[in-house]
Design brief:
mainly alpha, about 120 residues
């Protein structure tokens, strides 16, 4: 990989990091969800700065072409992101269900109070 391409990729990754940090600062992005994105960006930045890591990992895992290793790492990171989002959606779904049930119980109590008067 040419040094120019590494610099362009590095600038793009750092820009995304700054955007995410700024969104966290302005409370537009929750920290617990941003951590997985920031982790992914840090891993990508490390692999960009030290491309020999990709060659070494590819050799250890048994992948012949280092570019395939990059796609493999991207696939793994995408799977991690999808899993993180699925867990978040599941938690929020449970919270919405619980809040809906509590609201229904409170509404029933309110209706009973109004009916007794």
């Amino acid at each position: 990989m040419t040094i120019r391409l590494q610099i362009v990729i590095g600038v793009i990754l750092v820009s995304f990091m700054l955007i995410i940090v700024n969104m966290i600062r302005k409370k537009k992005f929750d920290l617990r969800y941003a951590l997985s994105w920031l982790t992914m960006l840090v891993v990508a930045l490390i692999l960009d700065i030290f491309p020999r890591i990709v060659f070494g990992l590819a050799h250890v895992i048994g992948i012949d072409i280092p570019s395939n290793m990059v796609f493999f790492v991207g696939l793994i990171l995408a799977i991690i992101m999808i899993f993180t989002i699925a867990v978040s959606v599941s938690r929020m779904s449970n919270r919405v269900k619980k809040l809906t049930q509590e609201l229904a119980l409170l509404q029933k109590e309110l209706d009973e109070i109004k009916g007794n008067k």
